[in-house]
Amino acid sequence: MLAHLLGMPPPHPDIVPNFEDPYSQRYLIVLTTAITLTVSTLLVLVRTYTKRFIHKAGLGWDDCESLFLVGGVLGRVIADEYLVDLSVLAWVSRDIVVDVSDG
């Protein structure tokens, strides 16, 4: 009914929704994030090392900005992976309460 109100066509009769065990692409997202974050961190560190120790030049605002952004992204990924998982765990565990006061 809602799909009709929004102007969407109804699903094809062969399509059966899977609400019990839906397909998840979380592992692909985590893998892609880990690879790109590792590569970008290594590239920024190599650039900073080359500029500071090989060329003996000072770090400019662009180098500091790159280090700051990589650190921010790393912090965000850690926060998303661990804090969100912990909050979901706390939300789920609050509904699993065993009442042993009845005997």
Can you offer a commentary on this structure?
- The protein is an all-alpha fold and 103 residues long.
- The mean pLDDT is 77.
- The longest helix is centred in the last third of the chain and has 35 residues.
- The radius of gyration is 24 Å and the shape is elongated.
- Helix 2 runs antiparallel to helix 3.
- It has three helices and no strands.
- The chain is 66% helix and 0% strand.
- The protein has a domain of 70 residues.
Quick structural gist:
This protein is mainly alpha-helical. It has three helices and no strands.
How would you summarize the topology of this molecule?
Layout: H1 2-5, H2 26-54, H3 61-95
Helix pairs in contact: 2-3
Overall pLDDT confidence: 77
Shape: elongated
Low-confidence stretches: none
* Secondary-structure element order, N to C: HHH
N- to C-terminal distance: 48 Å
Helices, by number, come to: 3
Strand segment tally: 0
Approximately how much helix is present in the residues? 55-70%
Strand percentage: under 5%
What does the largest sheet look like? none
Structural class label: mainly alpha
If you compute it from the alpha carbons, what radius of gyration comes out, rounded to the nearest whole angstrom? 24 Å
- Which oligomeric form is depicted? single chain
